[in-house]
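Q: Got a minute? One more chain.
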Amino acid sequence: MAPRATAADIDAVGGTICEGDSFMLTATAAGVTNPVFRFYSDAALTTEITDLNVSPAVTTTYYVTVTGDNVCENTANDGAELVVTVAPRATADDIDAIGGTICEGDSFMLTATAAGITNPVFRFYSDAALTSEITDLNVSPEVTTTYYVTVTGDNVCENASGDGAELVVTVAPRATADDIDAIGGTICEGDSFMLTATAAGITNPVFRFYSDAALTTEITDLNVSPAVTTTYYVTVTGDNVCENAPNDGAELVVTVAPRATADDIDAIGGTICEGDSFMLTATAAGVTNPVFRFYSDAALTTEITDLNVSPEVTTTYYVTVTGDGVCENAANDGQNW
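A: Always. Here it is, folded:
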């Protein structure tokens, strides 16, 4: 009479799968010649499994028997156990996907956490179906983009397709020069100018001023005193609007008009008799549309409004001129006669 195999004759090779995956039932029996295995779903060995590629929904124990040369099949309740452990899949709710906002042209590092999972390992994808993995996590999307993140960990499988956590990177547009009304102007040599701008289409605008088009040198004191005509550059940020890119700031021109000098004026003096009067006059051939002002002191602090003067003694007066693109003479640089 041939003996029956026992559970101890069989090495039943179990394993772990993720929810939704399949497992191929296999076994070995080193001490049995020409072994033939049969698998069952019950210890009583009444329900044989013919498709050995199983997909259990939960952790499941299968039973395997063997026959071979001069060896009969195991008896009921003496099959070898084969355990297929089904590990749960992570879900989107397990993951805290950390999105954020960047400006056009900037980059964003994709990150996530999973507080309830031990030894989490994250993977990022560009699609909800989780078919296109992102390997460089420092992304630079051109428009607002949704990414998808999955996690694996101790006894937890990766999220299923369509169940990754969403991570949104919002791309805020940059302001352009056209968004800004940069208010330039004209000053006289030695005077100052307050840099200002407006941006009617931007909510809560904040302006920054620079001395260069590349926007590398910011001006913190906006009351400027350029020695020559100078171009400044202004940018703006606001609600959901990033600062202008380099070379796209609005230009603000401060024109520095030269001051007239004593040499520009031909002051026409003369001689009068005691008790007579003299009409103060001057010319400035090189100044267009000249306007003259007369003073009693070289510091140009006391202007004479009645130009028909009657000095009691020989007197020096001082005259300045303004005209198109020409500012009034500086103190102590008026023409005298």
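A: Residues 177-257 form a domain with the Immunoglobulin-like fold (CATH 2.60.40.10).
Q: Perfect, thanks.
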